[in-house]
Amino acid sequence: MIELRDISRTFTVGGQEVRAMDHVSLAIGAGEYLSIMGPSGSGKSTLLNIIGLLDTPNSGTYMLEGRDVTSLDDKQLAATRSKKIGFIFQFFHLIARLTAEENIELPLMLAGVAARERHERSAPLIDSFGLSNRQHHKPDELSGGQRQRVAIARAVINRPAVLLADEPTGNLDRSSGAEIIDLLERLNAEGQTLVVVTHDPEIGNRARRRIRVVDGRLAADSGG
Amino acid sequence: MRPLDILRFGLMSLGSNRVRTLLMLLAMSIGVAAVVLLTGIGNGARLYIVDQFASLGTNLVIIIPGRAETASNTPATLVGETPRDLTLEDAQALSRSELVARVAPLNIGELHAVRQGRERQVPVLGSTTSFLDIHHLEIALGTFLPEEDWDIARPVCVIGPKVHQELFGRESALGELIRLGGYRCRVIGILGSEGRSLGFDTQELVIVPVAFAQMLYNTSGLFRILVEGKDPETLPRLKKHITETIAKRHHGEEDVTIITQDSVLATFDKILKTLTLTVAGIAAISLVVAGILIMNVMLMSVAQRTAEIGLCKALGATQGKIMTMLVSEALLLSAIGGVMGLMLGFAGAFGIAQVYPELKTMPPVWAVAAAMTTALGTGFIFSLLPARRAARLDPIRALAGH
């Protein structure tokens, strides 16, 4: 479903070229549960950003659901991100002035979906994510675990092809972190393709397929 | 994104920083209020003056001896010849046209009016019966100048109420004698206290028959001749008729200047309109200043909301959408500030109208429209740069900057 072919990405930092991705090829099938691990600065975030269409590679091709998305313009990129990609961030990135429900519905609002339909689509998520009694609260009235649940609901409301989680437990205590991982694994069990970037081996090792990135290259791939 | 959602999103974002929003609204509303109020005052002044002129009647033609435009380059000026005087006969000749409703010759000067040791300097105006109607004056007591031949220097006068009070106190003046510059004359009428025609205060006026005034001033000329046309439509023909008649009588020389109320009115109207526009323009500068303020605050707001903007991009907002959101926010701010300013401006105009009832300080529609357009325009233009900056934010960096 996701196919990266010979992807390279270089940055220029202080006049020096830094190779963040060095000829990486990777295929991810639908419904996979994949973790990307590696030391900081290894390029795992760059890999995630490229998969998430937030970053464009300098060379190589990226096929998403059989379609070449390597060189799309801003509009096509935005539309593809909106429909195919769900992001989960370490710092949740909820909008403080919106309620939990409004935060969950934000992708739909940006896509121009009518309020009634937004509500119809967010209601079952709020229910199944155990947020029913918190849906009208602002993020600063929620616990860390609840915030991340809101963020996950927001990521999956458009039924994305792939769910990308960047250190989803990095800002949570152990028990809420475990809750979040449970939730993500539950979604994966329901067929959601899941990619988790982490440097925490305990979390990374739970994935069925584990990838290790070092110096912009795939150092290890448990298979897929 | 639906328009309603954009609106709601913008309102929420404005509501999340109340102090900042209120300050911007204040700046915007002061700008709009200034435009509305100043144009209102300017327009009020214009209407006031137009009104004053209209009270004189718009089919009035004023003839002044001498020709301003040609005075300096005719041989006459070289040999030191003054223009020919206008005479009573000229005025009489003019009254014989069927285009003319009324003619009033006019002489004016200042004389001492004396009565039993009380003395006062007054403007003395020599004219005929028709002056009363031409200037819409009213008689409070007695009669106006008698209708008789213009060259009879009957020693009678009509005095203004103020002159009456100062020379006679509470006594009756009708039939009494006063001295005007060495001649005695009888008071036959008192002017009503109403009426302040442009140029002179009828309250302190003394009006005498024109021939008597010529005697008082020892002249055979006239200060000017007022001609009232029968119909405003025939005014151009009347002007031509006057020019021709006077030229015929003055050996073919066009040595008078003819002024119509219309042209004077038009000039005043133009001057005051320009003035109003200028003032409005100056006030509009404050709107531009408000616009720059909006730009500054929007730039700050974009910097503060970097993560939010990055998030929206990651969630599938195009650059255009981000720009639309931010520009809408600025437009919303301008619109609310503008409406507040309109209310403020109209309240101010209303307040001034209460203090100065003769000044109709109603801001003209074009000024209201222009103020709102400028407010929205500056809001739009000055939000473009911050919005563009936001739209071009790199979402990776925007989201990482925590």
Topology:
The complex is a heterodimer of chains A (224) and B (402).
Chain A: E1 2-13, E2 16-28, E3 33-37, H1 44-51, E4 59-64, E5 67-68, H2 74-84, E6 85-88, H3 100-110, H4 115-128, H5 144-156, E7 162-166, H6 174-189, E8 193-197, H7 201-204, E9 209-214, E10 217-221
Parallel strand pairs in A: 3-8, 3-9, 6-7, 7-8
Antiparallel strand pairs in A: 1-2, 1-4, 4-5, 9-10
Helix pairs in contact in A: 3-4, 3-5, 5-6
Chain B: H1 3-15, H2 18-54, E1 60-65, H3 75-78, H4 88-94, E2 100-115, E3 118-127, H5 131-134, E4 139-142, E5 156-159, H6 161-168, E6 177-180, E7 183-191, E8 206-209, H7 210-217, E9 224-229, H8 235-249, E10 256-260, H9 261-304, H10 306-314, H11 319-355, H12 365-391, H13 395-400
Parallel strand pairs in B: 3-8, 5-7
Antiparallel strand pairs in B: 1-9, 1-10, 2-3, 2-6, 2-9, 4-7, 5-8, 6-7
